[in-house]
Amino acid sequence: MQSSVILTLDIGTTSCKLVLVNQHGHELFSDKTHYPLFFPKAGHVEQNPQEIWSNIQGMLRSLSRNAGKAYNIEAMAISSQISAHFLVDAEGNPLTNIISWMDSRAAKEARDLVNSYTKAELREELGMDMLIGPAFIPPKLKWLAVNQPQTLARARYLVQIKEYVIWQLTGEWRSDLTSLKGIVNQQNRRLSSKLLRWAGAPDGIIPPCGDPWDIAGHIKPDVAGNLNLPGGVPVILGWNDLNAAVLGTVGIPRHKSGFDVTGTSEHIGFVSADSLHTSPEGINCLPFVDDVMLSYGVTSSGGQALQWYMNNIAVSKNYVDIERHVNRVPAGAEQLIFLPYINGERNPWWNPNAQGVFFGLRAHHTKDHMTRAVLEGVGFALKANTVRLETMPSEFVVSGGASSLDIWNQIKADIIGVPFKKLNTTEAGCLGVAILAGYALGWYPSLAAASENMIRTSKVYTPKIENHLMYNQKFETYLGLYDALKPVFDININQTEVVE
C-alpha cells in the first residue's frame, strides 16, 4: 500500500531541498540541488531563474526513480527565499535576472523612501513595523524605473522564484501575503498604490495574493508527464522561507516561543499571541497568522559566513572536522573576534556597507582559532538582535542546516544565555509547508493542530555559566569594534565605488 505524502520544495538562496513528508511530520525521502549566485559588479547579486527551474525539474524527474513507487503524492507545497525579485513578461519569460535579497543596488532608493515618509506613515501604509532596505519591493522597482525603464514597461509582473515555479507547474500567477510585505498591507491586505506611484510602477505589476494554505492550482497534465509526476496534484500556495521555517520550528504557539532559523542568512526572534508593542529599534515586527505576531532580527551572513570560511580558509570542508577543530580552542578563541558582515548587515544595523573583519590576530592564533571565531562572530551578530527584543524568550528552537553542528548550538546558548533546542529535522521550511498542506488537505482541523502533531525536538543545549559571563564581556568588545569601524566601512565602500 502506498504511503500518502506531501512533496515539498524549499527553494533557498543557493540550493533547493526536496522532501517527502507524511502526516506525522516524518521525512521519508530527501534530495537537493545547487545553483550559483552571480556578482556582476559591486553591490549587485543576481541569479538566473531559468537555471533554478531547470535544476528543480531535474530533481522532480528523478524522484520516482530515486524514491521508488511507494508514495502517493497528495499535494505539493513550496517555500522559497524572499526579497529576491525579477520581472517577467506576459508569456512568463524572465526579463531580468533575479535581484537577490543580498543585492544593495537600491540602497539610495531605500534611503529616499525612508526620507519620503515618516515611520508612522510607513507603518500605517504597510501594516507592520520593519526596517526598510534595498531588498524591499518599492526601492527595487524605483531602481528599475530609473535604470531599466524600457524593461519595466514590458513587464507583466514583478515576481519571486516561488511564484515562477508555481506558474511553471500550474499556469497560475499567485503570491502569498507575507511574501509581498513591503508593498501589500499585512493587516488589511491592500496593495499600496501610494508606494507603487512613488516607485514609478503600475498597480498591475504585483501578482494576486492569497493565504499560504490556499490551493494555487493543479499540476498541468503536460507538465506532470514531463516531470514524471501524477497529474492534477494540488499545488499549495506556500510561504516565504522565513515564515515556513518558523512554522516548522515552533508552530502556532499561544505563548512566546523563540526560534533561530539558520541558513545562508539567519533569523532569530519569537512568535507570540501576546500583545506586542511597537517594535524596538532595529527589530522587525509583523503579523504571522491571525492574532499571532512575529518579532525578529536577521543577520545577513549566518551559514554563509561559515561556508565562505570553509571554501576559502579552512583546511576541512565538512561539519565533522569543523566541530573537531573548534573543540581544540577554548571558548572566546583567545581574544580573536570575527565580524561576519561579508555581505553587509541587516538587523539591527541595516548597514550594507558593513564588512567582514578578523580582529585581534596574534602569532599564536591558528586556523582553529579562526574557525571558532567565525562561529562566535555569528553568535554575537545574533545577540545584537536578541538584546533588542521586547523580552527574551525562555529558550530558542534552532532549525536549518547549521543546527546539525552541535558545537555551534552550544556556542549560541552560551552567548545568548538561554537553552537552545534542535529539531529532529534540519528541513524546517519543508516541514512548515507540509504543515500548510496538511491543513489544506483536511488532515488536521487547524494549523496549530497540524504543527502540534508534526513538529518534534531532539536535543537541548544548556548555557555554561562561565562561558556566558566571558561572552558577555566579549560582546561589548564586539559592539565597540563595529562602532569604531563603521566610518571606515563607509570610506572603504566609497573608495571601491570610485575605483570601479
Can you walk me through this structure?
This protein has 500 residues and is of the alpha+beta class. Helices cover 39% and strands 22% of the residues. It contains 16 helices and 22 strands. The strands form 6 sheets. It has a 7-stranded mixed beta sheet with strand order 16-17-15-14-20-21-22. A 6-stranded mixed beta sheet has the order 3-2-1-6-13-12, sandwiched between helices. It has a 3-stranded antiparallel beta sheet with strand order 4-5-8.
* Major sheet strand order: 16-17-15-14-20-21-22
Question: Using DSSP, what is the number of strands?
Answer: 22
Report the helical percentage.
Answer: 25-40%
Low-confidence stretches: none
Radius of gyration: 22 Å
Mean pLDDT reading: 93
Structural class: alpha+beta
Count of individual helical segments: 16
Shape: globular
Distance between the termini: 63 Å
Main beta sheet: 7 strands, mixed
Q: What portion of residues belong to β-strands?
A: 15-25%
